[in-house]
Amino acid sequence: MTDWPDGVGLSRHDCIDSTNEQARRLAQSGERGPLWIVAREQTAGRGRRGRPWVSQAGNLFATMLLRASPWACAQLGFAAGLAVYDVIGSYANPAPVALKWPNDVLLGGKKVAGILLEALGSDRLAIGIGINLADHPVDMEFPATSLKLMTGRAPDAEEALLILARSMAAWYEVWRVQGFAKGLRGAWIERAAGLHQEIRARFDGGEMQGVFEGLDEDGALLLRRRHGGLERVTAADIFFR
Length: 241
Description:
Elements: E1 9-16, H1 19-28, E2 35-42, E3 60-67, H2 73-92, E4 97-100, E5 104-107, E6 110-120, E7 124-131, H3 147-151, H4 157-190, E8 198-203, E9 206-215, E10 221-224, E11 230-233, E12 237-240
Parallel strand pairs: 1-2
Antiparallel strand pairs: 2-3, 3-7, 4-5, 5-6, 6-7, 8-9, 8-12, 9-10, 10-11
Helix pairs in contact: 2-4
């Protein structure tokens, strides 16, 4: 593929259970990456917390397999979010694009893409990405949309993959040189949905409400409670008022 990032592999599949599962199998067989795994169709796609990811034809399903220490996994999720933001923004302007903590991308306030991070052993990471190019699920707790619905046409999946791979390579380099706190944190916050607004954070066993104040230096969400104190939220589903 013309202009594909140097040193990055590409593995294509017509139909597969899940690109993240293929990344797991390859990692177990010794593959270190960086490698993009892409499929036209998934039969067992999944999202965060084991939720099924509806895999309609015409959308983009891709996973990047790369070497990464466990402490870097969450940080690279923010790099992936920025890369997906670039993909959506290249097609959706002027429709508003925003990043929803921790790993979703919104278009017009609705979910258009999601990211699933999975550590594979002690030194490899799978970054699974699903982008609703042509279609989107309905009757979801958090409403979804697609680029076709919002812009009138579905982008070519091959073109979108190239934009994604190139942007991910660029944001990875920002992270590698500058780190998360200096390189990615500010860029992510600039694109964040719900910043300085009241949100609801739902997690296993309960929920909290407060004002979304930003991210700390590790990527945790900072929630300003009504009593004025700041809470670090490291894992939750976020809902806007």
